[in-house]
Design goal:
Length: about 350
Amino acid sequence: MAETSTHGTGTVEALSLVPKAEGRQSMKDFKSDQEVRWCPGCGDYAILAAVQGFMPELGLAKENIVFVSGIGCSSRFPYYMNTYGMHSIHGRAPAIATGLASSRRDLSVWVVTGDGDALSIGGNHLIHALRRNVNLKILLFNNRIYGLTKGQYSPTSEVGKITKSTPMGSLDAPFNPVSLALGAEASFVARTVDSDRKHLTEVLRQASAHQGTALIEIYQNCNIFNDGAFDALKDKQQAEDAVIRLEHGRPIRFGSDLAKGVVRDPLTGDLKVVAVTPDNEDQVLVHDAHSPSPTTAFALSRLADPDTLHHTPIGVLRSVERPVYDTQMADQLDTAIEQYGKGDLGALLAGGDTWTVVG
């Protein structure tokens, strides 16, 4: 079945190649027989349950879904999914998933990674997968700490973070994963929270429907080495004033009785939070996740305060259509075969482009 999508610069054919499942599926069908081994109370359990519960919605055969992970607590995820999976090497999950998604377009490919795995040694692999717009979905668990190696500061830890590796406080300015993804021209960027299953599931739903790379940052509590890092977003009373829920096409308002809103500063062009009054109500921004420019989405991402997490946007910040890498690559291969025929690997290896090395 062929679906045609318009991407502004032309029309790209996106093929729906992933086979559908036969019969109805349930959450139980996606639970593996492996014992789940995370620390009791870890936020990973909630994310696992949400993903397992969501998978039947895809309507895909389990054999055509693949989870690829790197190294870290989150990267045990493939063991617990009754799908194909690969526990790969540190930081390289996006690269391995790129090869898989590009060569096997009949598969639904998901990446599970953590803030240390994805943003430290895996930083380049992540940004290049995003800019290429490969058809894969990346779940980035962010607990702002290295959990598997027992509590060192990570690329998302706040300045001054006291850990085993920074006993006098971290000096590094932290990454904002959402800002990083938007800067890499990612076509789908979202943020959600491990304990909000309804919201997490809705974000997964939108990401799965997206053609191209979708990155979801999931705030995830590490109750052993960084417990309470996101309490401001989880406590009902605090969250009312801290969480900015983004919904496409709706004014960006939050707080008790929606008394706060996001406006653009006429002097600097930056976004800021204000108390909404009759005089400024018409200045409150309406969220446009589908804007071709990532400028406003990036400005929204900068509202998150790395120290207090007050005024933190969650939801889909950006969802736009643009050419999908693996579709374009398949088109190039088809064109090459039509023009030149199938290649000969033996002839290529024994070809005339050789060099003599003189000692």
